[in-house]
Specification:
Number of domains: 2
CATH class of the largest domain: Alpha Beta
Shape: globular
Strand content: 5-15%
Order of helices and strands: EHEEHEHHHEEHEHEHEHHEHHEHEHHHH
Strand order of the largest sheet: 2-1-3-4
CATH superfamily of the largest domain: tm_1862 like domain
Oligomer: single chain
C-alpha cells in the first residue's frame, strides 16, 4: 500500500483543504505516513501571506530531500509562482481556486476529489504532540498559544465553511488571485453538515469563509437568511464564532444582524476594520461608513453585552500619517472591541498598493506597531495551569528544568 504525508501552512481554510485532501487520499486506498521520510507522496498546502510564505518555501525545500513525489497546492502558486519555481524541481502544482485539479496527479483514483465532502475540522498533525519534543520546542509551542487566532482550536466545535472565494478587492491583498470568485454552498449542503454535528451532540459551531458576509449573493440568498435558517434547525444551536465579517456587510445588513444578536446565540465575531481613517480605507479599497459601522457594533453590544467583538488593524499602509494612525487608534478604542490584532503593512509586488507612494519607513511602521500593540494589549483573564495543560510533561519539566517551568508559569 502506498503512503502519503501532508503538511499545511496558514489559515483554517487551508487546514480544511488539507483535511479534505487527506480524506481523498485515504478513501482511494492510500495510507497516511507518520513522517515524510518514507512516504511515497508528499503534499504541501502553502500560504502566501507574511512569514507563512517563507515557512512554505522552507518546507518545500526540505521535502525535496526525501524520496517521495512532491505535490504543491494552496495559495502560494497563484500569489508568488516565481518563488516556488526557484526552488521546486517538479511540475505537480495546483492552486486553491482550482483545487479539483489534484485529480490530474492521481488519474487512476476511482473516487474523484469533488466526491469528497468538505470537512468540519482542520488537519491534525499525525504524531504525538510530545514525541521527540525538546525544551526549546516546548517554549516555542507555549509562545504560539498566545498568538492571534481567528478560530480557537477545539475539535468539539465543528467548523462550517459556507463559501469559497471573495467579492472584495483590497489594494494590499493578493489572496483573491489564489482563492477566486465567490462560490456559495447551497443551504442543503450546509444543513447536512450541521445535522451530522447535531447527531454527535455538537451544538456549538464556527462559521468560516474568506468573505463571510458575501454569502449567497451568487445563489439568490444572503448571509442573515442563512444564519436565521441555521438557528431554526435546532434551538440548542449556538454560533460560537463568525470569521471575517467585513464592515461593509455589517453596515449593509445592520438591522438583520442586530435582530440575530438579540437571540443571544451568536458568541463571537471577527470583523476586520483595518483602519479608522476614511482616507486610508479609500486607498485600501475598503470604503466603509464608519459612523454606521460603529453605531451597529454599539447596538449589538447593548443588546448582548457578552458578545465578543474582535478586529484587526494594519499600521504603516503607504502614505499613512501620524494623524491617520491616531484616528485609527481612537476609532478602535471608541468601538470597544474585546480583542484587537495589530499587523504591520507588508507589500506584495502583485498588489495594487505597491504603486501607492510615498511609503512609510520600516522604522515608523515598527514604532507604530509597538505602540498599537501596547495600547491594545490585554492581560489574560485567567491563569493557565501548566500542569493541567500538559500533564506529566509539566511535572517532568518542573523537576528537570525548574527555571523554564516557573518562567512559563508566570
Amino acid at each position: 500500500m502506498k503512503t502519503f504525508y501532508i503538511k499545511y501552512i496558514g489559515c483554517e481554510r487551508r487546514g480544511l483543504d488539507a483535511e479534505r485532501i487527506k480524506n481523498y487520499l485515504i478513501q482511494n486506498k492510500l495510507k497516511r505516513a507518520g513522517s515524510p521520510e518514507n512516504a511515497d507522496y508528499l503534499l504541501v498546502i502553502t500560504c502566501g501571506v507574511g512569514e507563512s510564505e517563507n515557512a512554505s518555501i522552507k518546507i518545500i525545500s526540505d521535502f525535496q530531500k526525501y524520496k517521495g513525489e512532491l505535490i504543491i497546492g494552496g495559495c502560494l502558486p497563484s500569489m508568488n509562482p516565481k518563488k516556488i519555481r526557484k526552488i521546486y524541481r517538479g511540475n505537480k502544482i495546483f492552486n486553491t481556486k482550482n483545487i479539483d485539479q489534484i485529480d490530474n496527479f492521481f488519474p487512476n483514483f476511482e473516487i474523484k476529489f469533488k466526491q469528497i465532502e468538505d470537512p468540519n475540522r482542520t488537519l491534525i498533525e499525525n504524531k504525538s504532540l510530545f514525541k521527540k519534543i525538546s525544551l526549546i520546542n516546548f517554549a516555542t509551542l507555549w509562545n504560539k498559544i498566545n498568538l492571534p487566532k481567528s478560530i480557537e482550536a477545539n475539535p468539539k466545535i465543528p467548523t462550517i465553511r459556507i463559501s469559497r472565494g471573495c467579492t472584495g478587492n483590497c489594494s494590499y491583498c493578493t489572496i483573491r488571485q489564489a482563492i477566486g470568485r465567490l462560490k456559495s454552498k447551497q443551504w442543503d449542503e450546509i444543513f447536512r453538515e450541521i445535522k451530522k454535528a447535531l447527531l454527535k451532540k455538537q451544538y456549538r459551531i464556527n462559521i468560516i469563509s474568506s468573505d463571510t458576509g458575501s454569502y449567497g449573493l451568487d445563489i439568490g440568498s444572503n448571509f442573515p437568511q442563512l444564519l436565521e435558517k441555521i438557528l431554526d434547525l435546532d434551538n440548542r444551536i449556538k454560533i460560537e464564532f463568525i470569521q471575517d465579517l467585513h464592515p461593509r456587510w455589517i453596515c449593509r445588513y445592520n438591522s438583520e444582524l442586530v435582530n440575530l444578536i438579540k437571540t443571544k446565540k451568536i458568541k463571537k465575531i471577527l470583523t476586520a476594520v483595518q483602519s479608522g481613517s476614511e482616507r486610508m480605507l479609500k486607498l485600501m479599497n475598503r470604503p466603509t461608513d464608519l459612523n454606521k459601522y460603529q453605531k451597529t457594533l454599539k447596538k449589538m453590544k447593548e443588546i448582548y453585552p457578552r458578545l465578543e467583538l474582535r478586529t484587526q488593524i494594519i499600521v504603516g499602509f503607504p502614505t499613512e500619517t501620524e494623524e491617520d494612525f491616531q484616528t485609527t487608534i481612537n476609532f478602535v478604542k471608541d468601538c470597544k472591541f474585546d480583542t484587537v490584532d495589530v499587523f504591520k503593512y507588508q507589500e506584495y509586488k502583485m498588489a495594487s498598493s505597491a504603486k501607492i507612494k510615498p511609503k512609510v519607513s520600516q522604522r515608523i511602521i515598527e514604532q507604530r506597531f509597538c505602540r498599537a500593540k501596547e495600547i491594545f494589549s490585554i492581560q489574560p483573564k485567567t491563569n493557565i495551569n501548566i500542569d493541567k495543560l500538559i500533564g506529566q510533561f509539566g511535572l517532568f519539566l518542573k523537576r528537570r528544568c525548574p527555571k523554564l517551568y516557573y518562567k512559563l508559569k508566570k
